[in-house]
Every structure is written in C-alpha cells, then in structure tokens.
Here is the input.
Amino acid sequence: MSRTVISGARVFDGESDDIQVADVVLSGGRIVDVGLDLDGDVRVDASGLTVLPGLIDAHVHLMLTSLDMMKMLNRPFSYNFFVALQHLRVTLDCGITTVRDASGADRGIQSAQADGVIEGPRIQISVIALSQTGGHGDRWVPSGNFLDVVPPYPGRPSAIVDGPDEMRRKVRELVRAGANVIKVNTSGGVFSPTDNPSHGHFRDIELEVEVEEAEAAGIYAMAHAIGNAGIKSAVRAGIRSIEHGNELDDEAIEMMLAKGTWLVPTLGVLDFIIATAEQGASLPEAILTKAYHAREAKRDTFRKAAEAGVRIAMGSDSAAEAHGNNLIELRLMHEQGLAPIDCLRAATSSAAKLMRLEDEIGRVAPGMHADLTLIEGDPFDFAAYPSNVTAVYQGGRLVRGGQPASKNSPEISPKGVANATL
Ligand SMILES: [Zn+2]
Here is the structure.
C-alpha cells in the first residue's frame, strides 16, 4: 500500500509538552509511523509547518442554521440540510476533522459524511437534547404556540420527557435513532424563551436512568448545564461532560474533580448570540436578557475550573454564521487562563477522550486515523487561526490545501496554497 511521508514539520502529537521535528507516514487512511528519516512513495515537504492532530470541536450544532426565529420559522424544513452542508465544509476548512453535534444532526448526515457522499468532519451525534416540560428544549411560548425551529421527524424524535419511565423509553428511542451520546438539559438555557438557567431540571432519579440506559447501550451522557443546580445533579448522576457550566461554584468544581467530569466551556457563544440580536435578528426579549446574565455569570468560572485542574475539551457551540469561526475558542480559553499547550490538548487528545474516541483520533501516533491539521507560523498564536491553517488531511486524504498527493506528483508543498484552492 502506498505510503505518504509528511516530512520535516514540527509535530505536536496531541499529548506531549514538546513539539518536535518528525516525519509522519500515512498509509491506508491511518498514521503508520512517526519518527526521523522515514521513507515512503510520496513525500510532502512540510518544513516550517507544524503538524497537529486533526482538531476536534466537541460542541456544534450543524443543523441550527440561523438564530433568527422568524427566519427559521419561514424556512422550508429541507433547506436546513443544505445549509448544514456548508457548515460541514467551512468547519473542515478551518482544520476541524471531527465534531460532536450537540443536538440537531441525525444519522443521515453522519452516514453521508462517513460514506464520502458529503465532505465534512467526522460526526458524533446526539440527535436531540432531552428536556423536561418547560425546559431548554420546550419551545412553548406564552401565546400558546410552539417556536419549534427543530421539529421532530422520523430521524429525530421529540425531545420532551418527564419521569424515569419516559426517560428510559426516550433514551432507547435515541439509541435506536443512532445517537452516539445522550444529551440532556439539566438546567434552563439561554436560547429558549421561558425557562430559567439557574433552575435544576430533571430529578436525580431521571438522570440516573438516563445514564444507566446510555451506558447499557455502550454510549455515554452529556449535559447542557448553566446553573449550579443543574451542573451538580448532572455530575452526581455520572454524566460525562458539563456543557457551558457558566455558574460553576467551588463545590461544583470539587464534585467534577472527584468524578472526573469534563467541562466543555463554549466561551464564545454568548457574545455571538448577543451580537446577532444587536444586529436585528428577531429573538424574544427574554433570550437577550438571559444571554447578558449568563455572560456575566461566566466571567471567572472557566479560569477557576482550569486552575483547579478540571478536565477540559474544546467546544464552540457553533451555530448559524458562527460555523467556521469555531477556533475562536482556542484564543478565548487561552485568554482565560489555560496554558497554550493545554488549549491544543483540549482540541485534540482531550476532546477525543471525552468522546471515547482516543484510540481513533486526537493524536499523531501509529494506528490513529490519518487526520492532520498543518499550521504555518506559531502554533500558539491562536488569534491567527484559522488563516494559518495551510492543509488538512482526513483519513489520509488532503481535504484542504494544495492538490491531493499522488504518484504522478511525487513532491507537493501544502505551504501557501490553501486560500487559492478554496
Ligand atoms: Zn449547544
């Protein structure tokens, strides 16, 4: 089988403290060797570049195609699938080769990507996020109508569930629908008109059933949680990751450390919601008010969690026009106290561990999928992302930057050609 050698680059393997010069050999879609002076059939000169494991965004919403409620309500149902294709493309272009969709994307999108029908990052799906009546996923509004921008359909069941028995049935329904992770909203949210983010949603017995059924199906649970009540109930139940975690008090941090719970901080999303509203998007006033409150609550909580050693995976909560700007999250995590190398770990090996994919992605090591993101300049200059991304490999295939390597073009350089080919 043909071997492609990416030679002369500095390599961050996803875990080590050091970034060292090495050759990386790709064959059959996998990384087969990493070391010095390696040979192969095709050589790619990557001197001066840094090779990172393909980046991972552990929290996106590929199917959330606008934050403007009126626009969404007037948009044909199927239109969103085409917009999602654009989201996949721009996400891959910025060097992200795997995402975890935190509600919206179904098995059809996932399978189309996996089968090569469409281009995009590998996708882990939650299908839909479960909510109690009146919770973050309940689209009831005071007029008595439902602002359901993501209505249920055969591939995506309804999201409302109350009581342990309904929870058990619904988790099984999501497993049947292909979910790789069961997402639950254990607190109110921002982007929903009637609930309160400080309230804890679901009782412990319901969450214990959720985790039990997920684990029985060989998958795991993730929780949208903004307030401490929802964060703590999720941690108590053994849910694997807290998404957002805006209010995180000291006790919550202690509990997360004791249980090894992951934090996916989504630091940029509130600014995006607020900016979108200020630019005139039609959103209920309550959403904007909650966005300001939640942003205020978040001021120092990420820094405290990072300093305490809570496990962190990068997640941007990208939706609508934010897709493609996912890597703002690297800069924000660094600005709020995470060491540069830990920011890169959060977007590679750590995110892979959270997603239980550490044997497949997230590291530059033999046996892993040949997903690589090549960076020019200083890899810790996070403000330069994603314009410093010069080439992206996925499964050994060049999916952005230059021409695909072949025996007819034995020497290619991915340097400086990325923008020309977009
Ligand atoms: Zn989200």
In short: The pocket of zinc ion is lined by residues 59, 61, 102, 317 (CB under 6 Å).
